[in-house]
Amino acid sequence: MSLKYILPVLAASQAVFAADCGDTKIKTQSDADGINTCSTLKGDVTIDKSFSGDLQLNGIKKITGGLLCSGGANVSSITASSLTSIGKGFDLEGLTTLTLLEFAELDSVGSINWEALPKLQSLNFAKGVTQAGDVSIANTGLTDLNGISLKTVGTFSIQNNRDLKTIDINNLQNATNIISFSGNFDTLEINLPNLGTGTNMTFQNISSVSVPSLEKLTGQLGFWGTQFETFSAPNLTQTGDLIFKDNSKLSNISMPVLKTVSGGFTIARDDKLSTISLPMLERVNGAIDFSGTFNKLSLGALKDVEGSFNMQSTRGNFSCDDLRKLKSDNVIKGNFKCDATNNNPTTANGGKGTSSSSSGGSSSTSSGAAFMTGANVPVVGLAAVFGALAQLL
Fold first, then answer.
1. Residue 274 contacts residue 252 (beta carbons within 8 Å)
2. Shared domain check, 139 and 128
3. Are residues 203 and 242 both part of a single domain?
4. CA 22 → CA 39, 78, 103, 216, distances in Å?
5. Of 38, 92, 186, 201, which one is least surrounded by beta carbons within 10 A?
6. Which three-class secondary structure state does DSSP give residue 40?
7. Measured between alpha carbons, how far is 43 from 47 in angstroms, rounded to an integer?
8. Signal peptide position in this chain (predicted)?
9. Contact of 239 with 216, CB cutoff 8 Å
């Protein structure tokens, strides 16, 4: 073969094998095709906001950096059939026409941050993502999170996904930072059957939550404005702040082995909750602040309350005298207030204690019938809720 033919062939061959497998910006599918010989891409893959249509990342198995796109309003789909891992962030923001994410082999990402993907309704993650640092998903069209099968996670924040109806993550065992759900579909059902430990968990606008294996939280557990009737944490022994507020349908809370609340414990405006029973609760390191319409109370194992104590109900069938004895015995270290028959019960800071009450209840301390102990009341339990609900709407 003539030299004049050989040289161009060699040059083309070298160009193929010399594909730059570092940081890559993709403006067209041709740019993506230019890195399809990179089994491992050592850097970030950035999809330019000018990209339009369906993007296919072929041949790449690993991205050591991130897979990024911000403002790609005309990106309709992203497919990467061979990609197994993204070392850093999988960050998509403002892809307003994106309808498909198809990553059949992806199982590990540094983090997920998806924001404003209104057309994305489901995930085609056949293998399932089992490893991720932090996960934040907000303002998408997702109806479930199938394909995210995490075993551990840092932050897990799911906010303002108006069509999200179910979250079922069977593999999740530990969360090292906040788990937060708010502003999603009003009847969102959450199932975390194997979650054993975590830090903070906050829930708003959900219809059910299942945490049967949860044993210990180092931070908050909180519920606001939920739609479920029953909350159960049968194995929870310790948590930080514990708060229940404005749960209009809540009538039963069961936490039969809870021993320690490492922060404050608040129940307010849960008008259908008639019984508060915590048969094993021994220590509250902050304040106890219960206000509402409950008529039965069981705190028979209580040994130490480091903060103040506020107990107000419209129809309490419990004895403030028995509770006052806890104060005189120095079980309760802080200020004490109890009123079992207050038409306008208030929280410790003067807020409404029921959904219909006005602020500013009476300050009397009255006695009702018998104060129940763990020995003479069935385990109805008290649910865990609380916490500073970060990431509000």
1. no
2. no
3. no
4. 12, 20, 21, 43
5. 186
6. strand
7. 13
8. 1-18
9. yes
Length in residues, the chain: 393
In tens digits, what is the pLDDT along the chain, a chain of 393 residues? 554 544 444 444 443 444 689 999 999 999 999 999 999 999 999 999 999 999 999 999 999 999 999 999 999 999 999 999 999 999 999 999 999 999 999 999 999 999 999 999 999 999 999 999 999 999 999 999 999 999 999 999 999 999 999 999 999 999 999 999 999 998 999 999 999 999 999 999 999 999 999 999 999 999 999 999 999 999 999 999 999 999 999 999 999 999 999 999 999 999 999 999 999 999 999 999 999 999 999 998 999 999 999 999 998 888 899 999 999 999 999 999 999 999 999 999 999 999 986 654 443 333 332 233 332 322 223 333 333 333 333
| Measured distance CA(75)–CA(93) in Å, rounded | 11
Per the domain annotation, does 7 fall within a domain? no
Q: Determine the residue type at 221.
A: L
Give pTM, 2 decimals. Answer: 0.85
Domain count, the chain: 3
Residues 190 and 237 in one domain: no
Q: Which residues contact 257 (CB under 8 A, 6 or more apart)?
A: 234, 235, 236, 237, 280
Alpha helix stretches (DSSP H) within 129-194: none
Q: Residue 319 pairs with which residues in a beta bridge?
A: 367
CA-CA-CA-CA torsion sign (278, 282, 286, 288): positive
How far, CA to CA in Å, does 345 sit from each of 168, 220, 289, 292, 385? 38, 25, 11, 7, 20
Task: Assess whether 179 and 247 both reside in one domain.
Answer: no
